[in-house]
Amino acid sequence: MNLFYSKIAGLALIAFLSGCTTPNIETSHYLSSPAFSNDVANTAVMGKWSRSCALCHITGEAGAPVVGDQEEWQRRLAQGEQAILKNVLEGYNAMPPLGYCMSCEVADFRAMIAYMAGTNP
């Protein structure tokens, strides 16, 4: 009888612990669609973009990919969303961490990338 209760207790513990996990929103939410295609740049996000990102991404200053340059953005998108976001958050080449946008959230960066890459104009 003790073996029976031990198995039941073990199964209950496994069921309980499996309910404690949270889905990885960064990947599971976006797996079925192209990179950054669910992110929309609203007026507030575009205001942040024009005060920070536009400084380099309009002219290509310091090697920044230019807004709408499909070939260059496709090359970057091929690296994956996580790699792009890591570069934005930590800085990459001449781009400082957060791209000078200290008030931006990850959702803002996602929308800005979608706008510049043309994945969700």
Explain what this protein looks like in three dimensions:
By secondary structure, this protein is mainly α. It has one domain (35-121): Cytochrome Bc1 Complex, Chain D, domain 2 (Orthogonal Bundle). Helices cover 53% and strands 0% of the residues. It is built from 7 helices and no strands. The protein has helices spanning 2-18, 25-28, 43-51, 54-57, 70-77, 81-90, 106-117. Helix 3 crosses helix 7 (106-117). It is globular. The model is unreliable at 15-32 (pLDDT under 50).
Tally of individual helices: 7
CATH class: Mainly Alpha
* SSE pattern, N- to C-terminal: HHHHHHH
Tally of structural domains? 1
Radius of gyration, Cα only, in angstroms? 21 Å
Low-confidence stretches: 15-32
How confident overall, as mean pLDDT?
A: 80
Helix content: 40-55%
Beta-strand portion reads under 5%
> Can you tell me the CATH topology?
Cytochrome Bc1 Complex, Chain D, domain 2
> What's the CATH H-level homologous superfamily?
Cytochrome c-like domain
Note the topology.
Elements: H1 2-18, H2 25-28, H3 43-51, H4 54-57, H5 70-77, H6 81-90, H7 106-117
Q: Features of this protein?
A:
121 residues; mainly alpha; 7 helices
Short description:
With about 120 residues, this protein is an all-alpha fold.
